[in-house]
């Protein structure tokens, strides 16, 4: 099968290569998925799990990418809940070969059914961004209707889904001046230009969803009301609200949440934020392009 591999952490995306690899076998509780579309997050190349296994042993050349949409082609021994020929999407294990390939072996529990009216490209754009937004808001942030949310990176892949999921609560988006209209289109009730507006003017906030860290995170912590929460996806929080919680988390696969997210796509409550769509043969060039497009990059593995 065709696959993209990485061997040199220092080289980053420039060290990616398109190669031929053996198709993976299905272990116990695995399924084999023929991948139609794959998502990729550039920060994967900084994650230890891309380069080593759970015992910290080198596992290169490794296949990156952890988001997928495709069709089940084989079941491992003991696998239940899915069937050959079924359309699926989901989030692959961090420590195993990933989804920038024509096939992947993945635990069945990490997949959810992909309805026939949802395109594979859309399905592949949802797992990391959708689950990160969902878990940050509802699981870790315990967001309730009527509360206020400040979401950084409002025009990005995660931030745009946070905007939409938090719309019923009331959400303020942040970003650069060029992001204003996109953030408003995705559901922000207000927008803060981090280069030119005073962040401190937004007043008391119940939940801050931080994708930036650093000084912005520290300033944001000061905006949180008593009992509020700062949720971060950029590692351990450097700042804490004076009278609230600070939570950092790593997204986890969850079939029920994936099903909730894709249902919102189907009924029009959730739009994906896809930037580049590229073929697998062109993926290395796409990841190394000098010009960046906002939104999620999706690799279309099968035409």
CATH architectural name of the largest domain: Alpha-Beta Complex
Instruction: Please identify the structural class as seen in this structure.
Output: alpha/beta
What is the string of helix and strand elements?
EEEEEEEHHEHEHEEHEEHEHE
Question: What value does the average pLDDT take?
Answer: 95
Rg over alpha carbons = 19 Å
Termini gap = 15 Å
Mind summarizing the main beta sheet?
Answer: 7 strands, mixed
Number of helices: 7
Description:
The protein folds into two domains: 2-126 and 272-300, Medium-chain alcohol dehydrogenases, catalytic domain (Quinone Oxidoreductase, Chain A, domain 1, Alpha-Beta Complex), CATH 3.90.180.10; 128-248, Rossmann fold (3-Layer(aba) Sandwich), CATH 3.40.50. The chain is built from seven helices and 15 strands. The longest helix is centred in the middle third of the chain and has 14 residues, at 127-140. Helix 2 crosses helix 3. It has 303 residues and is of the alpha/beta class.
In short:
The protein is an alpha/beta fold. Helix content is 20%, strand content 27%. It has 2 domains: 154 residues, Quinone Oxidoreductase, Chain A, domain 1 (Alpha-Beta Complex); 121 residues, NAD(P)-binding Rossmann-like Domain (Rossmann fold), CATH 3.40.50.720.
């Amino acid at each position: 099968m065709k696959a993209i591999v990485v061997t040199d952490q220092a080289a980053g995306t420039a060290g990616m290569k398109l190669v031929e690899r053996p198709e993976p076998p299905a272990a116990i509780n695995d399924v084999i998925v023929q991948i139609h579309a794959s998502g990729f997050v550039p920060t994967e190349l900084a994650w230890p799990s891309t380069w080593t296994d759970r015992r910290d042993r080198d596992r290169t050349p490794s296949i990156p990418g952890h988001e997928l949409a495709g069709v089940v082609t084989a079941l491992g021994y003991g696998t239940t809940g899915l069937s050959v020929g079924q359309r699926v999407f989901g989030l692959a294990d961090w420590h195993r070969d990933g989804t920038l390939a024509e096939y992947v072996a993945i635990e069945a529990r990490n997949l959810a059914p992909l309805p026939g009216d949802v395109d594979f490209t859309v399905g592949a754009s949802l797992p990391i961004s959708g689950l990160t937004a969902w878990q940050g808001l509802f699981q870790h942030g315990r967001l309730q209707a009527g509360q206020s949310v400040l979401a950084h990176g409002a025009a990005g892949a995660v931030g745009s889904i946070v905007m939409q999921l938090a719309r019923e609560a009331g959400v303020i988006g942040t970003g650069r001046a060029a992001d204003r209209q996109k953030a408003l289109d995705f559901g922000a009730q207000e927008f803060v230009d981090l280069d030119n507006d005073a962040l401190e003017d937004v007043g008391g906030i119940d939940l801050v969803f931080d994708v930036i860290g650093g000084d912005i995170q520290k300033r944001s912590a000061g905006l949180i009301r008593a009992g509020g929460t700062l949720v971060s996806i950029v590692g351990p929080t450097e700042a804490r609200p004076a009278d609230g919680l600070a939570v950092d988390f790593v997204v986890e696969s969850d079939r029920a949440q994936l099903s909730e997210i894709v249902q919102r796509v189907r009924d029009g409550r959730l739009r994906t934020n896809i930037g580049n769509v590229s073929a697998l043969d062109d993926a290395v060039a796409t990841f190394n392009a000098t010009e960046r497009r906002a939104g999620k990059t999706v690799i279309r593995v099968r035409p």
